[in-house]
């Protein structure tokens, strides 16, 4: 997994979100300022910024642009090597992703033993989505991994509550301090803390409880859960104070004015003011209507079933089968039923929260599922059925082969039922297939196969084509009859094409693909 992620990170140009996080991380680490990217808490960007300490990246003293311009400035306008900067920004996230694999191993071993733990670890390490997003300087995998770590510690708290409950609070706080969508897990994980405390105390004293004793034990469990919540809250505060101990903050102009219950809820949150303003920005994103694309249909808005359908496309078939078998085993097998609330309930609640969102941009919003359900799948190996180990081994090998066949193109992965990564763009768009990651590969292709061609480019991403030696014009600014030569179009742009771009594509001949995310056309 380390080899796959590092080599993938070396070959990919910046995706759309990465320069923003890179720039914000640099400013947080070097200037101790929270002014960039307030819509996300600082911990994940501090992780990314820690890698930048090994570079010379530093914004010019007079720079005053926005967060998008900051990332472009650091990568392309300050004399830095963008390849080197992106690798150092991605390496800390890669290291975290590998450590979360050990959490998958440890949690599954606690539930099933070594065979199930190795099966779960294999599913995790070969997951195309985890590899794809774990090799990027983004926040999705760190948040999901911290949530899984919190769940693991809550499970272990059933035996060692005094040691594990505070640590679970730290992990939960780290998840919230990385990405605000982790807040959806808080109403689930805190009751699990009560359950763990109850089970730990009942294991030490199995005698029947009268009503008074049960109420007293429940009250102590609630107090323990409150303690977990306070520890998590302290971690969120600490992440902001680590950036700026004085917590200097001026509300930026892009923060919207909310009304009604949402404003009341945000105002009463016991978080720092920058966090609350970030929540307001997130609500503004949810109010907006975004462009979506699903199975050839371009629409505005969101479909509640988008993520389940996208998961069917983006998840290896063997993995889907093992997820289902693991979920059934958690419910049907008596020894696993105590673990079902720890694995299935958080997964379901987070999935429903993501399905309710307004942004149909990719399965990265549910990247926690390959983590949580890998643990569940490991439980399927313990089912007392003659062929369980053999069937599990065959399915795990199938997953591994499917994952290895897509290397190094993990972002546009699609399983065999949907034709593999070369056909993903027919069904999905954005971070499911084309997130701007193949600009460097396009430059290599043009240099080796089309060295003297006139090139036209419609690129969806945050990279700067000229920085990679691509000299191209935007065909949308010219009359169609003047656009001759080679036309390169990002598949996400093609999926949402309208007007002049749609006319150009209709009158062009596809030639080949670059990285399964950019299509070359002949005109």
Q: Termini, distance in Å?
A: 41 Å
The main sheet orders its strands as 3-4-6-5
- Helix fraction? 55-70%
Largest sheet: 4 strands, mixed
Radius of gyration, CA atoms, in whole angstroms: 24 Å
Please report the total strand number as a whole number: 6
**What's the overall average pLDDT, rounded?**
95
Structural class: mainly alpha
Question: What does this protein structure show overall?
Answer:
The protein is mainly α and 523 residues long. It contains 21 helices and six strands. It has helices spanning 2-11, 18-31, 43-52, 67-76, 82-112, 114-125, 128-134, 140-156, 161-176, 186-204, 211-243, 260-268, 273-287, 306-314, 317-332, 340-355, 369-379, 388-406, 439-449, 491-495, 499-506, and strands spanning 291-294, 297-300, 455-458, 486-490, 509-514, 518-522. The strands form two sheets. A four-stranded mixed beta sheet has the order 3-4-6-5. A two-stranded antiparallel ribbon has the order 1-2. Helix 2 packs across helix 4 and helix 3 (43-52) crosses helix 5 (82-112).
